[in-house]
Amino acid sequence: MAQTNSAAGVGSKNNLRPLMGNEALARGTWEAGVRVAAAYPDTPSTEILEALADYPEENVYAQWSSNEKVSLDVAMGASFEGVRALSVMKHVGLNVAADALMSMTYIGVNGGLVIVVCDDPGIHSSQNEQDWRVMARCAMVPVLEQSDAQEALACMRHAYEISGTFDTPVIVRSTTRLSHTRSPVILGPRIEVPRRALMTTRLRTL
Fold it and tell me: I want to staple 72 with a disulfide (CB 3.0 to 4.6 A). Which of 44, 52, 87, 88 is the partner?
């Protein structure tokens, strides 16, 4: 059974904080009991891993990766080992990791895997516009979206429940406006999720 953890400011009377969307995504990741997070730094997604790095390392290991495919590979390996994992990148970055994603959808995830993809409508800091909701349909991966920072936090917790229940990666899609807009967020406790057995001991229904 999952256990709660009151670290990182939870449990005080002042659990309402103004957070950017990216900070709220990081907070939701921590609250969901994620153990491993990997990302490639690129606006508008960079602050997610930066925020995660401020949480205790005994809760979550966070690393920058040499590219987006490496980021997804690290998260996939962690999920195969039975822990919840996160990979973060911007929209064009998931092009680099697309081959791994397409394979992951029929292999399964075991511990739970979420990919945060930050699209950039209006090309504020990118070479093109993309909408990864379209590609997600091709990959047969569910996509969750949010309209403010509070929903961003809740989306992360919900995404891991979906991933663990249905043995599939889940994409949480953000955009530049959401990632960099600040709004009030009610913080919650961290849940400690038991490590799942190795995938060789489980059957996947295809």
Answer: 87
